[in-house]
Amino acid sequence: MCGIVGYIGNRDVVDVLLKGLTNLEYRGYDSSGIALNDEGNIKIFKALGKLGNLKGLLKEQEKNIIDPVAGIGHIRWATHGSPTEDNAHPHTCNCGKLVLVHNGIIENFKDLREELIKKGCIFKSQTDTETIAHLVAQEYDAVKDLKKAVTKAVKRLNGAYAICVMYKDEPDKIVVARKNAPLLIGIGQNEHFIASDIPAVIEYTSQVVYLDDMEVGVVKKDEFHVYDVEGNEVNKKIEKLPFEPVALSKRGYKHFMLKEIHEQPDVIRNVLNGKLYDIDEKIILNEVKIDKETLKNLQRIEIIACGTSLHAAMVGKYLIEDFCGIAVDVEASSEYIYRKTVTNEHTLVIGVSQSGETADTITAIKQAKKKGAHVLIITNRPDSAMAREADSLIPINAGIEVSVAATKSFTAQLMSFYMLAMFLAEIKGSVPKDILKELKHDIIQLPTLIDEILTHKEPIQRCARLFANTKDFIYIARGINLATAYEGALKLKEISYINATGYPAGELKHGPIAMLDESMPVLSILMEGKVYEKILSNSEEAKARNARLIALTSSQDKTLDDLFEVVLRIPKVNELLSPVLASVPLQLLAYYIAEFLGKDVDQPRNLAKSVTVE
Ligand code: F6R
Fold this sequence. Notes:
This protein is of the alpha/beta class and 614 residues long. The protein is 36% helix and 22% strand.
């Protein structure tokens, strides 16, 4: 959702801004724009739709861009006001000397806007962002100093913001500020970069400084300084980026999603690295900063997350309850934050998030912290806002995930839950050693088994072609794979826009069965284990209503080929580990259907990679 870039230095400013925005494209957006401080003039260029439109406009306008010294850019995912050129950033003030880009939402913008209109400000957009531009400009008129003006203005803002501001008469600097929205300064030789996320700067530098809430930065070509809102300089730590530039290449795959699906064996190895050395040794999870006695007596865990991360959390609940007998509640963050939860200092609250920036989950964990709970964060972004709130932090080390549809991060989250559940079980002594030993042995095989699935994709491709024109889909499962069904259905609807729903197989006859006929395929996740026979019976019930059946199974039973129109077989594995394997063909099925339908696989419509608004 929305992305910010800024640059001050000797490179081609337009080029740096456009490359930065291109590398943030995956976050989802519907308009874009840049502003340049060019030979003493502020020049703004905006376009609706994809970045190609902005690039085209800048090509046309090439002769009007002389020698910019600094610039700021933005991709916007509409929240306040529809996607239009007027609503696209950068925004400016009455005199046009100030330009500003913004990520986040200003909650008190209506009051501020009214106040500013009374003072003579003329608004050209419906955005909350334009309010900040006018507000800073008003302050500037009084203090004639951009840093002071920004500092005064941000004190009046409620909500979330990461802003980047330029002023015509102060061309040597870009002023930045943040609260509840990420912003970093990339450090180069006689040049500085600004970005809301790493991919925008990764090509140029590996050294960054992360701004904290209520800080204001003054970024110049050869220096930068960060201050608190009282004007005191803050000593910032320079950090090394956790990713390499190669993370942003498709490495020969048609889409990032396909590349990321193929990275899963390595992602699993990364998660295991340092945690599971040998089947005879205990799981090492030094990231959990709770003493053993407390963990032994833990009675209650709450896991909060959204979307795909919520599905990983459901598997986590199953594992922790099964291995440790600790009661676990799983809840969507957006629900958790609007009710009276029974959370206290005896609760362990686990927040799960690929991005670490999901607004609902951040709010939820802040609420849990206020109630005294220990907050453990499982995230792919140890540099994120959520990670900063953590009492314990488990990074999942999946590498940058560019495709909006989460795949490898889901697998890494699952693996992190296996590690956590076994770690807790070993502390509590709640699972016999030989069972854990066997499980560890099987876990170590998972990367090879996924490789096997990835080298035999043809049956999945054929299935995708066969069902690509279906309007609806039902995925059924039971037990630990119920979350797999939810996740498989979510993947399909996200990237192909087919109406797909996951159901507990036993629930089929309590309502959904009414929808079944030859136009409604039912995909059964049939892993050998406790609930295999039950799901088979539920599939028979669907067949009796003329539904077309697909099986995703670990079974070699040939009679399945009589019942099901398509049987997708995966290697046999311990039922408890089967979500890791079963998710892969479902990701591929969604991928091939979307690709077959010609959809924008990596950037599906209406979706954003990081959902930074509640
Ligand atoms: C699904 C997907 C979303 C995210 C959800 C939570 O493919 O990407 O459903 O899982 O928006 O995001 P994070 O995990 O970043 O908190």
